[in-house]
Amino acid sequence: MDLTLLEKPLFPVGKHHVSLLGLIAFVVLFGLGLTLARLVQSQVIRRSLTRLKIGPNLVAIGTTILSLALIVFFLITGINAAGVPLAWSAPLPGVSLSLVQVFLLIGLLMLVFWISSNTKRFLYTNFFANSGLDRSLQYAISQIIANVVLIIGIFVVLENTGIHLGALTVFAGAVGVGIGFGLQNIASNFISGLVILAERPITIGDRVEVAGITGQVQHIRARSTVVMTSDNIAIIIPNTKFIDSPVTNWTYGDPRVRFRLPVGVAYGSDVEAVRKALIAAGSAHPSSLKDPPPTVFLDKFGNSSMEFELVVWSTEMGGRPASYRSDLNFLIEKHLREAGIEIPNPQRDLHIRSGVLKIEQSDGSRSKS
Question: What is the DSSP letter of 294?
């Protein structure tokens, strides 16, 4: 094949002309960039990076940025190969940065995110592990330090890649206006997250009740907190809910909680025998505390039964309160049955002042009274 045909200009681009050979080179290089970008996004690469103890969020962000950088790199390389020169060191139009500086900025920002993530992991799993501090406090300190490292790292990278923060004054003012309106909730949630980490009204593993949601705290993030319910459902709650709403923390300070279980027995039952049976039922459960011991109160005399209340102290409110309460009810029924104490059905007395009441039996015969 005559190479002159391949090198013959096909169409102009600005002051330059693109030949068939240059067009083929552009297509090959751009296709190579797309292929490598897909490879970076593959599960094999993601799993390999996860084995290096890189957080899943950082892996997702890093692979996405790297794939985009590969596409841009091979796109620019393909354009140059097509015969339209784009200088890597020349500033981009409207931006004082060159392509080399843009790629360097992306790489350094990814490095800062990686350092921040590993700083948190190192402090929490190694540095503070034998410090004697509470684990929730260790997590809070590690999270705050990681955020500080991230913020300082971003400032240092921007300054060293030619982006002077003093030139961002107008942009910062615009961002401030945006935060005051559209980003108000995000900013308030972020600040609330810092307050939660500093004051520690809730910590990892606490059983909390907020905004009608009850569950165990799994993660405390910058914007939200993940609470796992007893049905194994993860609920993501904005951090502001823990600041401006009443929060019930069942494991804050003293994890002991008093459980109250109402019990009705038939009239005529030996109240002392009832008391002993209920105390035995409360003491039989391994999760019931011995100090203070279970107690029984005769609450009131109801329409159909004498109403007692079994009071038991336990730490199960932070674990499985519903299962614990159910176990106690099973034990109460067992001990009352063994003691020969009846749990009555609702009863009503019917008084007939005048007239005739017809009673029909199952065999169809009738009697009058």
Answer: P
